[in-house]
């Protein structure tokens, strides 16, 4: 009997790999350092309040076909609440709802965005020009922009600086965790083409209704029920390499022998697991030091009485990007969470300063709340929330398999890579992580279906160039 397939990392990529392999009849072994699965999608009990807090708000969109499939397989799809309406504000208690109209994609959102009072008539015309250019560019056309920033693309669409800051950056920084000046243009173009224009459900927002730990609590039982093995609390120390193949994973509990290894960990973690010899043998591992990270900051606030009625709020002209309603407290109060993406400039700020900014944004958005202060606060800094999807890093994002790597190919044939930072065709997202896991599983077992197809493009959108 051959050794098992060993997967390092119990985040989304690792869980997706393990579940797909187990369902295909394999007996994968999943190693996770922590006691729970979920990786960066995790929760904790706040000692100050006793509440269970997510490290950061995680959401998905209707076009995330693989993540939706993964939740179905885990049996937790009912824990995702879908919202077809997004509420926007630039402050002073003026809230504007963006809801798809009856029109077919890609025109389904045009009436709602066309009525937004956040933007004057000139700004709305500029936005229409930009959207039309993105639509007509098509999916094949965005490949030509992979080595330039989205800001460079917008400059070719005659977008005023104010429109770039207040509209385009509002969407891009939340979707890609980078501002338009830094994010690779092809990544941002994908967000608009496939996340807003492709079909009527693509822009729907899915929000977990339970803490993230609860969302993934069933994963070990589901994976093991399908035939896999989950070993939590086991820390990988190194990937064993014999000069031709990887032979296992060195852990805090000893060597776990492997027929093949799937490294489903972030690039910086993988960099510490490979020897110089292994790195030299596999071109995918050599650029690991080139990757950069982009942080996210979450501010949890608890008020004595409710502040907001809508489930979430997109913020324009504010310091933070979003506010999410997290539920009522036992004392009749309300817990809300503010999220700041691409938070490099804030990462060294003290918690008190960030909390003050969060409260100021709440007061700006909800004038009725002015003068009211939170009775509970907690700031969470995810310094390494995602990789930075810049134009420079695109060529270094590795394939799952060794075949075809580098100019002359090569690499270690039984070492597979998975994670949102790999070459998934997506920016740093949960969807990308699951896609990479499914791709790794399919490369290892003929019984795996592989990556789920993208959501179908609406006929009119396809006719117009998507």
Side by side, the strands of the main sheet go 8-7-16-17-18-15-19
**Regions with little confidence, pLDDT below 50 for 5+ residues:** none
CATH architecture of the largest domain: 3-Layer(bba) Sandwich
What Rg is obtained from the alpha carbons, in whole angstroms? 22 Å
Distance between the termini: 49 Å
* Main sheet characteristics: 7 strands, mixed
Number of structurally distinct domains: 3
CATH topology of the largest domain: FAD/NAD(P)-binding domain
Measured as a percent range, the helix fraction is 25-40%
CATH superfamily of the largest domain: FAD/NAD(P)-binding domain
Please report the total strand number as a whole number.
20
The overall pLDDT, averaged over residues, is 95
Regarding quaternary structure, how should these chains be classified?
single chain
Provide an overview of this structure.
There is one protein chain. This protein is 30% helix and 22% strand. The protein is an alpha/beta fold and 466 residues long. It folds into three domains: 5-41 and 211-291 and 391-444, 3-Layer(bba) Sandwich (FAD/NAD(P)-binding domain); 44-64 and 293-387, Polyamine Oxidase, Chain A, domain 2, CATH 3.90.660; 103-203. Strands 8-7-16-17-18-15-19 form a seven-stranded mixed β-sheet. It has a five-stranded parallel β-sheet with strand order 10-2-1-14-20. β12 and β13 (254-257) form a beta hairpin. The radius of gyration is 22 Å and the shape is globular. The mean pLDDT is 95.
């Amino acid at each position: 009997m051959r050794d098992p397939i060993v997967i390092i990392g119990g985040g989304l990529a690792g869980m997706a790999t393990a579940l797909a392999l187990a369902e295909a009849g394999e007996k994968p072994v999943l190693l996770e350092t922590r006691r729970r699965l979920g990786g960066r999608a995790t929760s904790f009990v706040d000692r100050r309040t006793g509440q269970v807090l997510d490290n950061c708000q995680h959401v998905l969109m209707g076009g995330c076909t693989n993540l939706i499939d993964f939740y179905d397989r885990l049996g937790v799809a009912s824990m995702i609440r879908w919202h077809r309406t997004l509420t926007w504000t630039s402050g002073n208690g003026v809230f504007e709802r963006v809801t798809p109209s009856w029109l077919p994609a890609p025109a389904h959102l045009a009436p709602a965005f066309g009525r937004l009072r956040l933007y004057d008539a000139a700004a709305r015309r500029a936005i229409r020009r930009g959207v039309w250019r993105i639509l007509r560019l098509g999916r094949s056309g965005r490949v030509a922009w992979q080595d330039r920033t989205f800001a460079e693309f917008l400059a070719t669409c005659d977008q005023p600086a104010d429109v770039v800051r207040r509209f385009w950056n509002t969407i891009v920084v939340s979707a890609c965790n980078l501002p338009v000046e830094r994010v690779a243009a092809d990544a941002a173009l994908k967000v608009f083409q496939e996340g807003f224009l492709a079909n009527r459900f693509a822009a729907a927002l899915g929000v977990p209704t339970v803490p993230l730990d609860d969302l993934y609590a069933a994963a070990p039982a589901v994976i093991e029920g399908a035939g896999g093995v989950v070993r939590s609390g086991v820390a990988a120390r190194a990937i064993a390499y014999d000069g031709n193949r990887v032979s296992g994973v060195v852990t805090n509990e000893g060597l776990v022998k492997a027929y093949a290894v799937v490294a489903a960990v972030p690039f910086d973690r993988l960099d510490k697991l490979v020897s110089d010899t292994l790195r030299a043998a596999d071109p995918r591992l050599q650029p690991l030091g080139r990757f950069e990270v982009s942080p996210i900051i979450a501010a949890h606030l608890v008020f004595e009485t409710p502040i907001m009625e809508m489930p979430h709020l997109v913020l324009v002209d504010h310091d933070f990007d979003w506010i999410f309603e997290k539920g009522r407290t036992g004392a009749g109060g309300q817990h809300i969470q503010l999220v700041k993406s691409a938070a490099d400039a804030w990462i060294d700020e003290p918690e008190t300063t960030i909390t003050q900014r969060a409260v100021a944004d709440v007061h700006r958005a909800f004038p009725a709340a002015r003068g009211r202060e939170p009775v509970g606060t907690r700031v969470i800094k995810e310094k390494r929330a995602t990789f930075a999807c810049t134009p420079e890093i695109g060529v270094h994002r590795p394939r799952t398999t060794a075949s075809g790597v580098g100019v002359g190919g090569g690499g270690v044939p039984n070492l597979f890579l998975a994670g949102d930072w790999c070459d998934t065709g997506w920016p740093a997202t949960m969807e990308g992580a699951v896609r990479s896991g499914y791709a790794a599983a399919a490369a290892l077992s003929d019984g795996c279906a592989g990556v789920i197809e993208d959501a179908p493009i609406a006929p009119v959108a396809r006719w117009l160039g998507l």
